[in-house]
Structure formats: C-alpha cells, structure tokens
Design a protein that fits this description.
about 210 residues, mainly alpha, 3-stranded antiparallel β-sheet, hpI Integrase, Chain A
C-alpha cells in the first residue's frame, strides 16, 4: 500500500507527500546459493534436452526468468560469443558473455529442437515458453537432483553472481552483467561469497616491495 501511494503521489506531482510516507523494513535475509556440485546435479536431472539447456543457460548468463523466455534465436551470437538481452528490467538492453560450454549445448539444442522465433518455444511454434512451465522445470529438477535447499529459478542468478565474485570478477562488472541499476543491490552477494581475505597493509610496501 505504501509503495502504491508513493507511485500515485509521484504521478500527480505531490513529491513531498511521497517522501514523507514511512519506509518499509525488509527482512535481512541472504540469498540461497547452490554450490557447484548441486548445480551439476541440477543440470543433469531433467530428461529433456530443452529443460537441461534452459536451466544451464539461466545460470551461465545470470538471467532473470523473464529474460530467458524472451530470448530470440538471433540474440545468441556464436561468433562474438555474446547474448543480447533486450528491454529487460528498467527497459534496458545489455550484453553478457556466452560461455564456450554453453555455446556447444545451444548448438546441439538448436539442431535437435529447431525452434522457430523464440529460443525456447511454447506449445505453439511462434510462442515463447511460459513462466509457469519454466518454474515447473526448476521444481522437478531440484526434486530429482535431491537438493533440499529452498531454491527457485532466481537462485541460479544468485549463484551466478556469487560465483563470479568468488572467481575474482569485480563487483562493478558483476553489477553490469546482472543489469542492476545500482551497485548497492549487487553488494548483497558480498555477504554470501567466500572471498579471500587480504591482510590490511600499506600500498607503499607493495610499491617498493623489491626494496624490502
């Protein structure tokens, strides 16, 4: 209700009324992350190639579920090794890397399934895959993989961001890859990533490290 009123006041030009409304406190919960063994088991669980590919793709590129079903065949550039995500949240486009491993899987999928317009077809050849069906795929894969963590499709995106940070990718780059509007949103992953702790020191010592 508070957020609805804020939007209404902004819409009618009463900005001060929107500012004076009380803020809502969110629960301080951290995202649930799948480890690498769990991810491998999850991607192996579905019987259909299409299901294995779509789950793997969501993790490999940190996609939102809506972004995954909206992908069209030309959005995958195998030569440049990129995925073009169009008009997503905040109505922004972004380009993310296409992994070599994912590219091989996608080529096989395209050769077998031969989708028409969307990368992942729905029941009709020219229709996209439904979000409900995608949620079911994730639920069944989690169950069949024996994963007890309470995870959903967005957990794959959480895992993507966390694993990138753990592998040394800087947080600003991760922010851009995720399509976040503000880096403070991305910083939540610093609380779950297992990062190497560097002992506090003076940069002067590293500047003249050969002289020590």
């Amino acid at each position: 209700m508070v957020y609805g009123l804020r939007y209404y006041y902004r819409h009618i030009g009463k900005i001060n009324r929107a500012i004076n409304l009380p803020s809502l406190k969110r629960e301080a919960t951290l995202p649930v992350i799948l480890n690498r063994s769990e991810l491998k088991a999850l991607f192996k669980a579905p019987k259909l190639l299409k299901h294995r590919i779509i789950l793997t793709l969501i993790y490999s590129a940190g996609l939102r579920r809506q972004e995954a079903v909206n992908l069209k065949i030309p959005d995958i550039d195998f030569e440049r090794k990129t995925i073009h995500i169009r008009q997503s949240k905040y109505l922004k486009d972004r380009i993310v890397p296409l992994s070599d491993y994912m590219a091989r899987g996608l080529r096989k999928y395209l050769d077998v399934e031969k989708p028409n317009i969307y990368l992942f077809n729905g029941k009709e050849p020219d229709d996209r895959y439904s979000l409900e069906a995608l949620g079911w795929v994730m639920h069944e894969a989690r169950k069949n993989a024996g994963i007890s963590k309470k995870v959903n499709l967005h957990s794959l995106r959480h895992s993507y961001a966390t694993h990138l940070l753990e592998e040394g990718v800087n947080i600003v780059t991760v922010k851009e890859l995720l399509g976040h509007a503000d880096v403070t949103t991305t910083m939540i992953y610093l609380h779950v990533a297992r990062l190497d702790v560097i002992k506090a020191h003076s940069p002067l010592d590293t500047l003249y490290k050969d002289a020590l």
